[in-house]
Amino acid sequence: MFEQITLPSKTLLGCGCAQFNKDGDKLVTASTDNTAKVWDVASGECLATLAGHTAFLYTANFTNAGDKIVTASFDGTVKIWDVETGTCLSTLQGHTKYVVSAQFNGAGDKVVTASDDKTAKIWDVETGICLSTLQGHTKYVVSAQFNRVGDKVVTASYDRTAKIWDVETGTCLSTLQGHTDMVNSAQFNGAGDKVVTGSDDRTAKIWDVETGTCLATLQGHTGFVNSAQFNGAGDKVVTSTDKTARIWDIRALCEVSHFLSKDATLQHAFILHAVYEVMITRMLAKKQGAKNVETLTFDFAKCPHLEKYYEGFPESIQRKLAPYITKQPE
């Protein structure tokens, strides 16, 4: 059973962001009234008002420990706040245009920010000093996120790319190119070996962090993909547009893509193409009212020499293909 708690509307003018702390007992909201507010989730009581910015706030986020909050504002600054007292601990100044994203690393000792000035910056939380400026994008940088370990950052930009950066040196490790329109979001999975991006080209893409190659393209949305995120296990992705959200199981997609890039032959590719045709034929037949569409398969009796290549697929991929094929009797 769900319980709804409504926070006072007069104090949430133009609320554009709301984030829980890790324990889930507090909530921070960022508003167009130039403030952020900290709320008690159980009672709905406002615990603190974080006032000091001179333009509306785009985002606000807690540290993992829940003791600090970072806010990003259209006044071009970022502020770090003490949750307990509501006081501003430091103001991070250096961006020359709107700041649209600010996130702590896992340890809470660094912040990464993204700005319309085409850069991202990494900051030391204790001193407020800018440790490095990540330059290379040619249009607005709209998102910047640490991986879980905190040694890499991924940025998303309206220049149609995402970039992966080394936190220690500030150097660009790879540029993820493949989207045909603005990239709105980019996020690591928990293991840090994959990135998911969402784009105005109506797709999301899964990328290999080490090689920078695209492992899978998630197609189906009819509008801009504003957000794409992994679940905790990293085996599913949720994507959203202004009207729908979709959940994708990416395990099979990534396994097939990895196999094709490393070990596949033309024969393997032919089998996958044949299975894809069977899947489409089944779908169309089902729409037309056909029954027993499961009997439609790719029969290896027609191409017996290919069966040995099917056996060369990893077992996980064979299990996915099995419903769509008929093997020769032994």
Strand order of the largest sheet: 1-2-3-4
What gross morphology would you assign?
elongated
Average pLDDT taken over every residue? 89
Q: What is the SS-derived class?
A: mainly beta
What multimeric state do the chains show? single chain
Give the terminus-to-terminus CA distance. Answer: 54 Å
Stretches with pLDDT under 50, minimum 5 residues: 9-13
**SSE run:** EEEEEEEEEEEEEEEEEEEEEEEHHEHHE
Number of helical elements: 4
- How many DSSP E strands? 25
Helical content stands at: 10-25%
Query: In angstroms, what is the radius of gyration?
Result: 24 Å
* Main beta sheet strand tally, sense and closure: 4 strands, antiparallel
* Percent in strands: 35-45%
Q: Mind explaining what this structure looks like?
A:
The structure is a single chain. This protein has 330 residues and is mainly beta. Helix content is 14%, strand content 41%. A hairpin with a 5-residue loop joins strand 15 (161-166) and strand 16 (172-177). It is built from 4 helices and 25 strands. The radius of gyration is 24 Å and the shape is elongated. Residues 9-13 have low confidence and may be disordered.
